[in-house]
């Protein structure tokens, strides 16, 4: 059996799974993980500044990983797909509130700079990756290693989620970077590309 490889010239799509200490970032050719270690142990004043700093860093990294925002508009993504925040009883607490701030600040910055954003539920990402919307992290990691081995995720679940978010964006633009069964593709049926901000 042939190992899958990235073929052609895929669209400039970014995938983002936001975390305070280990956000996953993905593009068709590579993945990265970024966060601020120790952020959650800081006192309120320094912590607020670091949350803003983290949002700015994530925006810069996802919007132009090669040059930094403003240096080369031609390399900016045509779309960034962001894994949506969880809802329900597991979404409470201070850390989730702070993660929500970072999440919305990154989206605000992307919109301000004219980069379209698509927010996608975690269950949609899992369904596209594995065929099951309730798949566990291990199944998503395994699917990433099997279907997108050129993305060296090192088994990081945040990087894998970001990779599948990016893959969803490429598929919606008509240039899929990964071949998945019809059952997986059904995850895309209710998604619509956003208008330019």
Series of H and E elements: EEEHEHEHHHH
Number of domains: 1
Q: If you compute it from the alpha carbons, what radius of gyration comes out, rounded to the nearest whole angstrom?
A: 16 Å
Q: What value does the average pLDDT take? A: 87
DSSP strand content: 5-15%
Low-pLDDT runs: none
Q: What is the annotated CATH architecture? A: 2-Layer Sandwich
The total count of strands amounts to: 5
Specify the CATH class: Alpha Beta
- The end-to-end distance, rounded to whole angstroms, is 43 Å
Structural class: alpha/beta
In the CATH hierarchy, what is the superfamily? Ribonuclease H-like superfamily/Ribonuclease H
CATH fold-level topology = Nucleotidyltransferase, domain 5
Shape: globular
The order of strands across the largest sheet is: 3-2-1-4-5
Major sheet details: 5 strands, mixed
- Can you count the helices? 6
Helical content, roughly?
A: 40-55%
Structure description:
Helix 3 packs across helix 5. The protein is built from 6 helices and 5 strands, in the order E-E-E-H-E-H-E-H-H-H-H. The radius of gyration is 16 Å and the shape is globular. Helices cover 40% and strands 12% of the residues. The protein has a 5-stranded mixed sheet with strand order 3-2-1-4-5. It has helices spanning 44-63, 94-112, 122-130, 137-147, 157-172, 182-185; strands spanning 13-17, 23-27, 30-34, 79-83, 117-120. It starts with 12 loop residues before the first strand and ends in a 12-residue tail after the last helix. The protein is α/β, with parallel strands linked by helices.
């Amino acid at each position: 059996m042939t190992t899958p490889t990235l073929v052609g010239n895929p669209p400039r799509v970014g995938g983002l799974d936001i975390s305070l200490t280990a956000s996953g970032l993905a593009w068709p050719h590579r993945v990265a993980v970024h966060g601020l270690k120790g952020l959650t142990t800081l006192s309120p004043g320094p912590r607020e500044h670091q949350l803003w700093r983290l949002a700015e860093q994530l925006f810069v990294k996802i919007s132009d990983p090669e040059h930094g925002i403003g240096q080369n508009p031609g390399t900016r993504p045509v779309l960034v797909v962001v894994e949506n925040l969880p809802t329900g009883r597991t979404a409470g607490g201070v850390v989730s509130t702070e993660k929500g701030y970072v999440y919305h600040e990154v989206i605000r910055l992307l919109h301000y700079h004219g980069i379209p954003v698509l927010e996608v539920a975690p269950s949609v990402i899992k369904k596209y990756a594995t065929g099951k919307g309730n798949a566990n992290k291990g199944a998503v990691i395994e699917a990433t290693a099997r279907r997108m081995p050129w993305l060296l995720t090192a088994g990081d679940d945040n990087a894998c989620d970001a990779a599948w978010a990016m893959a969803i964006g490429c598929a919606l633009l008509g240039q899929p970077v990964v071949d998945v069964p019809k059952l997986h593709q059904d995850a895309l049926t209710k998604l619509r590309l956003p208008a330019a901000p």
